Amino acid sequence: MKLELRGITKRFGSLVANDHIDLVVEPGQVHCLLGENGAGKSTLMNVLYGLYDPTEGEILIDGKPVVFKDPGQAMAAGIGMVHQHFMLIPVFTVAENVALGNETTKTGGFLDVEATRRRIRQISDQYGFDVDPDAMVEDLPVGVQQRVEIIKALVRDAEILILDEPTAVLTPQETDELLDIIRQLKRDGKSIVFISHKLREVKEISDIITVIRRGKVVGQAEPTASTTELASAMVGRAVRLTLEKGAPRTGDVTFKVRNLTVVNPNGQRVVDGLSFDIAKGEVLAIAGVQGNGQTELTEAILGVQPHASGSVTLDGEELLGRSVKQVLGAGVGFVPEDRTVHGLVGTFSISENMILDLYDKAPFASGLGMKPSVISENAAKKVEEFDVRTPSVTAAVGTLSGGNQQKVVLARELSRPLRLFIASQPTRGLDVGSIEFVHKRVIAERDHGTPVMIVSTELDEVVQLADRIAVLYRGRLVGIVPATTSRDVLGLMMAGVPAEEAEASVKAHAGTNPHAVPEAAGREGESDV
Amino acid sequence: MSATIQPPASQRDADAALSKGDAKAASELVSWKAGIGLGLLAVLGTVLFGLLANDKLAGFRIAEARDPNASTVAAWVTLAVALAASAYLAYLWAARRRQGGPVDRWIPAAALAAVVVLGLAALGVARLEKVAAPSMAVGWICSAVLLALAGYAIFLTTQRRPAPRWVGGVFAVVFLVGFLVWIVAGGRDSEPSISLGGLLAGSVTLAVPLVFGSLSGVLCERVGVVNIAIEGQLLLGAFSAAVVATVTGNVYFGLISAGVAGALVSLVLAVVSIKYLVNQIIVGVVLNVLISGLTSFLFSTLLTADPEHLNKPGRLDPVDIPFLADIPVIGPILFHQSLVGYLMYAAVIVVYVGLFHTKWGLRVRAVGEHPQAADTVGINVNRTRFRNVLMGGAIAGIGGSFFTLVSVDAFSKDMSGGRGYIALAALIFGRWNPIGAFLAALLFGFADNLQSIITIIGSPVPSQFMAMLPYALTVIAVAGLVGRSRPPAASGIPYVKG
Asked: Is the ipTM above a cut-off of 0.90?
């Protein structure tokens, strides 16, 4: 089936998310849409899938114009979509999820679950998915959930499959498995639209690449194009993909975590007996697939997790059991993982957000009063220093782009003398330029002699920033390894395999999988942009 | 509905690698809630049933058979059926155990029900008419058992093991027995007694509006709309049933109009909360106040002026189901109901089967859990919600007709008396499941009926406290016993596309 988009435009009020986009997807082809977060890739696909009405333009299937009012019609036309955030109902079984909206019934509207199970087993066997139709979706690993999404599309006889940022939530091994599945689907003659901002995968899987920037198609490229070329096209200017950092000059070990355990309200140990140290002038990166206790770990250190036990000391001072204010007062800088929810008050101005934690201290306050002039002077200075692109310091933070919001958070956290700096997902959702900036500031803080803890689910970011890498799996520390550890070993560790076993397993597979080791060795120059 | 999941092989291997020789740490932490709660209740029980007990005999009249011969035959047949069912279920259970496979969730519940029926049938066969229990002795025995159970639960907690589920169940039964004996023995007479059959039959009857109300709640919340307006739906249902039945002279028209009235309340709820995205809880509360005011106004202006032509509906009399109604104890409780009562059984079964075994139910639950996912597979979220809310309103309205067509034969001000809110509690206690809600409503109906019976025979506790019983039970049940039950994820959240 051949899919063609002609002049698709989508406006939300004054915002133009898609601006006359043309796209042709040939049968049996993997067509990549490459673009930064917010470039309009997902909007375009939602238009195609009938979730949004296009403001202008038309969609053609096999040369005939079609109009989709809702996803049901798009599906009937043979378009399947795997959303970035899975559209699965967690408390349903796989079979129920697959059947939903396309149910096989016996007389009287009773569900014929057995028919659905058969279909799932058949597809599962055909593509080697290994999915149990009766498993509850919430109990499945993310990679398997994604296969359920693919099965959902295949059951409905999709000929065109849209995968929206499919690798964002996967471990490197799961990513490789997904790419294999895509190759199989392609062999069966399906057309694939693969949306991503990760250059490595795009180059590996695609037949043709369309680059989108600010809602417009800025060009097409062959997968043989160089990484730098693609990155420049995506960002619109030349970018450096490598981070220059010197060797760490480590000092005393000042930050110690001993046997830290966090119990969630359901009684599960989400952080389970963690112990690690960070020395002055060193970056420890916490790697792991999202949801393995990273959030709770950082929150426990900050003091917002009620059920935390163990010990967290900074310069010999116990932090656990203290209030957040006391912890911040002890010199802990903290960049939360979701800046829109935790780091900033969206409706407050930039200058107010710059002093959220210092509002009651000199020079910003005296007695009960605050000093607006000092506050805005401070903001003006920081905006300059951190290159926040804004018309004015009185602008509401919520109106800034993600990158600029993150710079405001960093400016606030890094502007006081720190004895520990924690940044959680520091570059999530940022454009390449902002990532570069944030990484530089983090390394600068390290070189300043501060112990730094970075929590990231992006392996590339971990590898770039870290001096040592700690891998978390299900709340436990799988191991702490040097930053030079290969990507494959880290990937296995992220699935819970201990360091030595992972090492051995990667060596054993090196013979059968020729590009595994060289790729790991050649990792240095690459980046995830 | 077996729900045991095997993680995929790779996952299991990884887990094994991680948790080598560390099995104990993997066990989850145990909360002290159960131990402390049971302990406090056990102490309370000891004080009441043991220390404060008198030396009277508490009498429980079992059954007054209407037709002894038919009754005996029915009792024997029931005994045989219950025995066969118990044996079969026990065999199934044991077989599953032996295979090491998981036991289906319904087997223990069904086995328990079969055993209870067996016991009741045995009572009928034995033609036992009255049981008398010495209050003091029973009280101390119950206290001792309660203290032992609480101690066991606390001991397990110190060992970091969760208390098994049977502990809570046995505790509840023993507490109930102790309480009944104590409270009946406290009656005015020298040998006070109550009718056990009457107590249970009355519980079912009083539970009827609660069951309809909570089914309405199930239908609405399962699709993602919080229905606080159950109270209003019951009340308007009662009102219109009374008026329409009087005006047309036909109680069945009254019944139908009650359903329509409930649906009308729902229509407002649906339009305002689904289409105009107003907070569902606020809309619900406002609707309740509105309906209460409206019916009170119409009652005091129109209905009291001319009750003969406006507020004198006929009654829906109880109908016996042949043979089944003759079973001693069970028959009068379950098979001597009005049309509304039988509709209740039908509604519970239809809603349950519909929700969990049909295409309609799958879509409804999907919309209540993850509307966006439902939308992406081509389900019209808001239309589904609209339809369900209307259906829920109609069901609650029919429940409201119970007040004017079955219970009392005229409408009076605010006669639903907060039962809509109790129905809401039953819905939560029943974990958003029609059968659970039905059982929870029965429990609340039991408390309600016990309260009125105790007030009649006189009790050591001031009647005001007894009147609090259903509500106190609601608070304890919802706060303490529900545990961590999970409402439909999207309940209360309006769905806006895109």
From this structure: no
Residues A65, A49 contacting (CB under 8 angstroms): no
The predicted pLDDT at position A362 comes to 78
> In sequence order, which residues have a C-beta less than 8 Å from that of residue A288 and are 6 or more positions away?
A294, A457, A471, A472, A473, A494
Q: In angstroms, rounded to a whole number, what is the distance separating the alpha carbons of residues A442 and A447?
A: 9
User: Which whole number is the average pLDDT over A325-339?
Assistant: 90
pLDDT value of residue B484? 59
Q: CA–CA separation, A69 vs A77, rounded Å?
A: 12
CB A453 within 8 Å of CB A276: no
Please give the backbone phi and psi of residue A158, each rounded to the nearest 5 degrees, phi first.
Answer: -70, 135
Q: Specify the pLDDT at position B483.
A: 59
Closest-CA distance of chain B to residue A390, Å: 28
Sign of CA dihedral B16, B18, B19, B22: positive
Calculate how close chain A gets to B21, using CA atoms only, in Å. Answer: 14
Give the torsion through C-alpha atoms of B297, B299, B300, B302, to 10 deg. 100
A203-226 pLDDT, tens digit each: 999 999 999 988 889 989 898 888
Helices (H), A162-256: 172-187, 199-205, 227-235
Q: Report the residue from B25, B358, B378 with minimal CB separation from A70.
A: B378
CB A436 within 8 A of CB A457: no
A448 three-class SS? coil
| Cβ–Cβ contact B21 with A under 8 A | no
State how far the Cα of B397 lies from the Cα of B383, in Å rounded to an integer: 21
**DSSP H or E run through A473:** strand A468-473
CB contact, 8 Å: A110 with chain B?
yes
Please give the C-alpha separations between residue A21 and each of A6, A55, A198, B44, B186, in angstroms, as whole numbers.
6, 12, 21, 74, 84
Q: Which residue has the higher pLDDT, A149 or A266?
A: A149
pTM listed for this prediction: 0.80
pLDDT on residue B60: 85
Distance (Å) from the alpha carbon of A38 to chain B's nearest alpha carbon: 16
